[in-house]
Amino acid sequence: xxxxxxxxxxxxxxxxxxxLERVPSPHQGKRYVxxxxxxxxTSLCPVTGQPDFAHIVIDYIPRxxxxxxxxxxxxxxxxxxxxxxxxxxxxxxxSRLVELLDPEWLRIGAYWYPRGGIPIDVxxxxxxxxxxxWIPSQDVPGYRGRG
Amino acid sequence: xxxxxxxxxxxxxxxxxxxLERVPSPHQGKRYVxxxxxxxxTSLCPVTGQPDFAHIVIDYIPRxxxxxxxxxxxxxxxxxxxxxxxxxxxxxxxSRLVELLDPEWLRIGAYWYPRGGIPIDVxxxxxxxxxxxWIPSQDVPGYRGRG
Amino acid sequence: xxxxxxxxxxxxxxxxxxxLERVPSPHQGKRYVxxxxxxxxTSLCPVTGQPDFAHIVIDYIPRxxxxxxxxxxxxxxxxxxxxxxxxxxxxxxxSRLVELLDPEWLRIGAYWYPRGGIPIDVxxxxxxxxxxxWIPSQDVPGYRGRG
Amino acid sequence: xxxxxxxxxxxxxxxxxxxLERVPSPHQGKRYVxxxxxxxxTSLCPVTGQPDFAHIVIDYIPRxxxxxxxxxxxxxxxxxxxxxxxxxxxxxxxSRLVELLDPEWLRIGAYWYPRGGIPIDVxxxxxxxxxxxWIPSQDVPGYRGRG
Amino acid sequence: xxxxxxxxxxxxxxxxxxxLERVPSPHQGKRYVxxxxxxxxTSLCPVTGQPDFAHIVIDYIPRxxxxxxxxxxxxxxxxxxxxxxxxxxxxxxxSRLVELLDPEWLRIGAYWYPRGGIPIDVxxxxxxxxxxxWIPSQDVPGYRGRG
Amino acid sequence: xxxxxxxxxxxxxxxxxxxLERVPSPHQGKRYVxxxxxxxxTSLCPVTGQPDFAHIVIDYIPRxxxxxxxxxxxxxxxxxxxxxxxxxxxxxxxSRLVELLDPEWLRIGAYWYPRGGIPIDVxxxxxxxxxxxWIPSQDVPGYRGRG
Amino acid sequence: xxxxxxxxxxxxxxxxxxxLERVPSPHQGKRYVxxxxxxxxTSLCPVTGQPDFAHIVIDYIPRxxxxxxxxxxxxxxxxxxxxxxxxxxxxxxxSRLVELLDPEWLRIGAYWYPRGGIPIDVxxxxxxxxxxxWIPSQDVPGYRGRG
Amino acid sequence: xxxxxxxxxxxxxxxxxxxLERVPSPHQGKRYVxxxxxxxxTSLCPVTGQPDFAHIVIDYIPRxxxxxxxxxxxxxxxxxxxxxxxxxxxxxxxSRLVELLDPEWLRIGAYWYPRGGIPIDVxxxxxxxxxxxWIPSQDVPGYRGRG
Amino acid sequence: xxxxxxxxxxxxxxxxxxxLERVPSPHQGKRYVxxxxxxxxTSLCPVTGQPDFAHIVIDYIPRxxxxxxxxxxxxxxxxxxxxxxxxxxxxxxxSRLVELLDPEWLRIGAYWYPRGGIPIDVxxxxxxxxxxxWIPSQDVPGYRGRG
Amino acid sequence: xxxxxxxxxxxxxxxxxxxLERVPSPHQGKRYVxxxxxxxxTSLCPVTGQPDFAHIVIDYIPRxxxxxxxxxxxxxxxxxxxxxxxxxxxxxxxSRLVELLDPEWLRIGAYWYPRGGIPIDVxxxxxxxxxxxWIPSQDVPGYRGRG
Lengths: 147, 147, 147, 147, 147, 147, 147, 147, 147, 147
Ligand SMILES: [Ca+2]
Ligand SMILES: [Ca+2]
Ligand SMILES: [Ca+2]
Ligand SMILES: [Ca+2]
Ligand SMILES: [Ca+2]
Ligand SMILES: [Ca+2]
Ligand SMILES: [Ca+2]
Ligand SMILES: [Ca+2]
Ligand SMILES: [Ca+2]
Ligand SMILES: [Ca+2]
Ligand SMILES: [Ca+2]
Ligand SMILES: [Ca+2]
Ligand SMILES: [Ca+2]
Ligand SMILES: [Ca+2]
Ligand SMILES: [Ca+2]
Ligand SMILES: [Ca+2]
Prior knowledge:
The structure is a homodecamer. Helix content of chain A is 17%, strand content 30%. Chain A is of the alpha+beta class. The first copy, chain A, is globular. The mean pLDDT of chain A is 95.
């Protein structure tokens, strides 16, 4: 049974403490894509302790499981006081979901706010996407300066 | 004969009650795509009973049949007081149309309004699209937060 | 000789009456694409007689002929008092051009205004486009509701 | 005490049944504007029973009270199975809030989805806004057809 | 009683034949604005007989009456085979509504499609708008060429 | 009688040679605004002879006369081989129209393409606009560099 | 002397701990506006402890002092683990700056991410802005749902 | 040696008179794409003598040579008083560059301003682009009418 | 006589060295606005020596003089290796132009690229603009983060 | 050890002097893409000494190393007083990174500000990208003129 959905919960204080949960995919025979868009992500710079912010988009093709969305939200919240570099953090989130869900395919796009005037985006997927599943572009606008 | 087009109708109270109707495709020898964009979709959360909203786009390549559009509208309206999870509901709509139309190919993009600050999109197609039919991108803008 | 270009003309009152004309392609050895964008298309609903509107985009690769553009304009104008369903009308326009031009390839995108809150788009092409000709996306924005 | 915030609630089945609640304004000496943007509004056409949809934006300057936002959400939800014309419904929502809050000033912009190809917007305010309070434009994009 | 709403109707063949109808304003004590956006307007050039197209936006503050929207739609449709110059036609539509409704205030913005590469817009209002009624900008994007 | 409308014409080779023509305003008692948007303007730099380009928008309130639009188009075309500085040319066009039309009010916005990386815009009006006539913003997007 | 600029600093753990600093305005005789745009703001819900996010824009006209920008950044960061309601928090930030700077005028626009599908914006200014100082619109896009 | 760069020049009066010049590609071993965007193109209609305007984008992969950009600008300027049809002119520009540069690959997109309400775009490339060179979309927005 | 226009020039190495030049306003009796948009501005941080960037827009109403645009460009270029704070630099540019031109009115909008994730904009004008001169909004988009 | 990160640094005065540094990729087994967006790039024209500006986007797939971002920033800053042609400079930046990082794949898009009204974009990649790594479009908007 799910331990968080429909229950009062407290925010996990680190990714390790967070409990990601899964439920059976409702259309097991169908290969569909689920996209989560999480524009409220924040973590800390492991060197300076300054807050970092990112807009994160996750796409995946379930096999047996889909992620329970309240637990996903709490998991993302758990980075709030956690220090991690951009490249590392982005791929780590995806890896944790892969471990939980054993999906047919998964990708993450992490669009970080600029530091030093230069934002970093990180893009990772588990491998080439299957050709017969429809996966639209994430189409997050590129960063621009001013004007 | 069609039972709903050009007739006064009442809203079906559940998807099961709705009568989806079909008419012969007007250009049987031609493989074209029909796109419906339905920004007025709403259903209920099966757990909390709260309303959910979605912008839905359906593309298909008819074989013998095309869906009669008034009956499609009534079918989509029938989810108004029906409870279903996002992933489930999105794929169910597509499946019902596949059953009715036996199309060469069909896909659905369901772009749900955010819950917990994180919207879910669901993308499903019946299989790889045929290579010689033109299927433009749905190009629905991604969700953003504020600013 | 062309019968309409540079002449006073009257609007043809039906597609059958319209005279589509062609001239030799100016770069016969070169395979290029010509795109027409016609945002001023209107016809009638064959059932209710109510006006319908569409934004239409046509792309084609000429073989020997290109369409004379004034005659194309008059041809599109001829649907003004003509009744036709969306799917039918969109493919019919393309078919008439194919018949006239015998192009290497042709496609039409017809982006109809909403009826019952749900617009219909129709996409058709003569077949898979040749791989060594450049055909940009039509990139017409999707329909949205309000907000 | 508040009866709905932080409590399990059920959706009120009509506007009359909904309990709008208020709490004291946190900065009584300060004249500020609160804006709610509610893109998930739906009601029924009182004549045909067909669903209507609107994107609603409310601005107000509190005097003693601010509206409790969960109760506002439930109030807006209560129109789901309620029949009302566009002009009537838009002004009625504003009137109910005025009655509850006795605000210094309040306005509503209701941007309805098109019917018959022509959307209706309704704009109402309690009177001329005070000159020394800052009230930004709602700046909801106008409706466009296609193309 | 209304003669067109909820009845089968035929399209009036000229503005003179069209029957604009009115109903009592639902909030007589309240001064609100109603906006209609009609992107499907077409008429004929009185000189050449060529079709003209416009995107039309009408704002008004009712006194006793509001226009019945189906009759407005049919009225606008009645210009389909009617010849009129841009400036004339735009102001004539507004004048007819003023005559019908005796509104406190009314304006029309008519955004015509380009002829000779140069579109014409026409803006008219009955007089200075009342200062204590909220009338948002129509904010229709300006015409641009290409690029 | 008009000398150019509905006649074959040749392009005037300088502004002086161009014949701007006027016709009576169709709604003499009504004070409305006419906007022309001319994105195809080009002239020459009087120093270097290099072509300059501008997007020009003209708004005016007719008194007795409106400008005949074909003659306006030909007038604008007459700058094609004419040398003039940006500030000078922009105000000169407006002045010529004022002389012809004796309008109640007129303004011009001239949005020039960049030279040396810095575009110049010129804005002029005959005086403060009348308060009871509705004159929407021209709202031409500002220039931006890249990105 | 400034205690934070050009020094290593740690993040203050609450707004009370943060040290906002000021420096003399560089153009004391000139009345100009300074705008800060802070899209990386986050605080906690005082009831649930869940993170809240906002895009914040601050405009002010200095009298003797301008705020030192590193100290402003650290002050905004200090809300990271602080609980406050939207209306309260938005006005509190502005009030703290007013206390520090004694500006001629100041305003804040706080554009919060949606909760329950309905975002709240808060707008406050110290009073009517002076008429001879130029204060551009903040022009932050309104929230939209999907589609 | 180059005859035009860094020299005073006069505008060539026809494409034939223009001197396109080339310089060695600076990274001979590297296969890169150069894109020129020329929004200031104008020519004449060969039938009516009326000016035509286009936004032109050229992409190419140099082999030994790149085009000197001042000479390209003068070449494009040389069409100012030259008559040519849209399809013809667009392909002719590309052909002239191919002749000069002997590039590995080249394409042109010519986005013409509307005539008769219908703009024409012309797209041509020398052949299928090489698969291992990166050629981004030109992504010029489609034409739209009004609204 | 002008010392820089039409002459070879070298970049001035500091604002003090730059020679801003003026020429008589071509329409002395007419009160018009000139807008310069300079998206290529860069200076240095006076503390760290790091480059800063800004998009700058200047509007003014000439009295007797207009600024010669090549000299303006060189003046702006002269900040390239000059250290100045954002607020100071923005107002200083405007002040220098005021001194040169003695304009009826002038304003500057300086839209700086973000530092520490928070961009600063500076807005200054010489005083309230005259009421009968038309001064459009600068309408530079606000900064946003990501997403 | 890194020589620049977390240390006070001075700006290198030429690309040769700049010290690009690398650190081990945090997810060696994972093939991800890192994107840097640098809208603050400026160099000098090698012929005229005039400043050039570009918006630069770099994508790469690390093998063993990722570039340390502060050193990348300083490297890009080092072009500030360095003369180089657009095509040359763009490819040189990419080449230097390839040399440092030995990446699996790398590309650069350099979007230069217009000179002579015509901007140049340069696109280069090390070769065909691997098929099973996800590389989103850079999607930088094309240049447009005005209007
Ligand atoms: Ca930054
Ligand atoms: Ca895109
Ligand atoms: Ca797109
Ligand atoms: Ca509709
Ligand atoms: Ca409709
Ligand atoms: Ca707007
Ligand atoms: Ca036209
Ligand atoms: Ca606007
Ligand atoms: Ca330039
Ligand atoms: Ca605007
Ligand atoms: Ca939400
Ligand atoms: Ca605005
Ligand atoms: Ca696109
Ligand atoms: Ca704006
Ligand atoms: Ca230029
Ligand atoms: Ca794009």
